[in-house]
Amino acid sequence: MIHSGRWTRASLMALFACALMLSPLISRAAENPLLSSLYDFRISNFEALNAYYQFSVNGSTETLNDIVASINASNAEMNSISEKASGLLNDDQVARLNQDFDKFKDLMRQNINDVRQNGYPDLRLVSDMANQAVTLSRTSAEMYDIVRTSESVTTDKRVEAARAAAVLMAQMMSKYSARSTSSVSQTFQGADTEEPLDEQAKQFDALMSEVTAGHPSGELHQTLSSVASKWGFIRSSYVNYNENNVSFVIDRYSKGILEELNQAIELMIGNDRAAATANASAG
Q1: Gap between the Cα atoms of 209 and 191, Å rounded
Q2: Which of 124, 165, 159 is nearest to 35 (CA)?
Q3: End-to-end distance of the chain based on CA atoms, in angstroms?
């Protein structure tokens, strides 16, 4: 019995040591939290811009709440970025991102107040906000790339393609809303590039080809199939963006694509963790 007890203690110690050896491998395969926050930050900012363009037309409380929710989400992610930046982003980089975000929020607040007080937007202020959205988008993309390419950060090609596709869809969605809004259609079109929507649609096609590489199965396959179905329904509207289309349908399906891309990203990250654990255990 004494021998058995000693064996049990030794086994537990061995298992504990094994767990310590495995944990770095699992950690490296797991999602980098700073990348995740930067990604969510980028999406939320475009969602706020998209909601504003709609609010400038309908002035509804529901749409205003959508803006507030997106800005609050961006605030939370900005705080998270500041907390997680150590070793990957320096203080000046975080400060620049925070400054650009504060300017965007201030202009958003002014533009919301204009619509609420006057019933229509001030096109000069809308243009100022649009230009600041460009600056914020470029800065956040730059910070994302700095973290992504860091030697201490491991990324997954399909996850990165899915995130790039989601950011692109958020850009396209906000641009389409701007084009569909007669009061602001002559100003900024809601994206951080000058590329027309039809070219962006082709880029989205290419990114989704990367995401679906390797013949995914199970729940991931179902989720990506649903994305493909929704995209197939609205793709022609993005390609032929000068034609008259039902904008609220495009908006609803675009948001559905964003939601399901996020689900796919979570599934892929979960699959990577499981694979890393299995491989480490086998080794």
Answers
A1: 22
A2: 159
A3: 32
Instruction: Tokens for 225, please give them.
Output: 């199939």
Distance CA 226, CA 231 (A): 9
Q: How far apart are CA 83 and CA 56, in angstroms?
A: 35
Tokens 């409380």 sit at which residue?
Answer: 61
Is CATH 1.20.120 what the domain over 156-270 is classified as, yes or no?
A: yes
Q: For 58-106, how does the pLDDT look when each residue is reduced to its tens digit (9 = 90+)?
A: 999 999 999 999 999 999 999 999 999 999 999 999 999 999 999 999 9
Structural tokens at position 213: 């590489």
Instruction: Examine the pLDDT at 261 and tell me if it is beyond 60.
Output: yes
Residues 205-251: tens digit of each pLDDT = 999 999 999 889 999 999 999 999 999 999 999 999 877 778 899 99
Domain residue extents for the chain = 32-155, 156-270
pTM for this model (two decimals) = 0.84
As a whole number of angstroms, the distance between CA 159 and CA 265 comes to 6
The CATH-assigned architecture of domain 32-155 is Up-down Bundle (1.20)
Rounded CA separation 271/262 (Å): 14
Q: How many residues does the chain have?
A: 283
Q: Do domains 32-155 and 156-270 have the same CATH topology?
A: no
